[in-house]
Design a protein that fits this description.
It is a single chain. The chain is 36% helix and 28% strand. The chain has 7 helices and 9 strands; from the N terminus they run E-E-E-E-E-H-E-E-H-H-H-H-E-H-E-H. A 5-stranded mixed β-barrel has the order 4-5-7-8-9. Strands 2-3-1-6 form a 4-stranded mixed sheet. The protein starts with 15 loop residues before the first strand and ends with a helix.
Length: 180
């Protein structure tokens, strides 16, 4: 029986929680570094169908396939389903398409809003936005989430290894599955 070797060493798992950012660096084999996120409250989230990524606040943990305990303790792991703040994506959408996602559509309200917008931006920009908006179709399930100001997203990075909590917004069948 050989004695314990340094290269066989493992480290205790530290679970990343939701809270003010706290990241520790750990020296690994070969002098490399791992970044242990102990607490995180924001990350970069990609909106796949629109091809845009924004840094947003993480609001809550909704679902984890491995254990409900991890949801209760608000633990951030890879593939955890979380709620993120929709505001940065709302602002981007308004700028690109000239449409406010948070508002419910009403006949009179939209015209006033369009008039209000036209004062602020040049005619050229308005036409550009109109052309984009005409080609644009948004998943109704995603649009519905914008009204509540929270989007469901999935964590794609490993917070305990790289110290960041990045991921993507759920859409289509994946979103339908997690909303049930």
């Amino acid at each position: 029986s050989i004695k314990k070797r340094k290269y066989e060493m493992g480290r205790p798992a530290t679970l990343c929680k939701l809270g003010a950012k706290r990241v520790r660096s750990v020296r690994c084999r070969g002098g490399n570094m791992k970044y242990r996120a102990l607490r995180l409250d924001a990350g970069n989230y990609a909106w796949g169908s629109e091809n845009v990524t924004k840094k947003v606040r993480i609001l809550d943990v909704v679902y984890n396939a491995s254990s409900n305990e991890l949801v209760r303790t608000k633990t951030l792991l890879k593939n955890t389903i979380i709620q993120i703040d929709a505001q940065p994506f709302k602002q981007w959408y308004l700028k690109k398409f000239g449409q406010d996602l948070g508002k419910k559509k009403k006949g009179g309200d939209k015209k006033e809003e369009a008039a209000e917008e036209a004062e602020k931006v040049s005619r050229h920009v308005v036409f550009k936005q109109k052309a984009r908006a005409s080609k644009q179709k948004l998943d109704p399930a995603v649009e519905e989430q914008f009204q509540s100001g929270r989007l469901l997203a999935c964590i794609a990075s490993r917070p305990g290894q790289c110290g960041r909590c990045d991921g993507y917004i759920l859409e289509g069948e994946e979103l339908a599955f997690y909303k049930r």
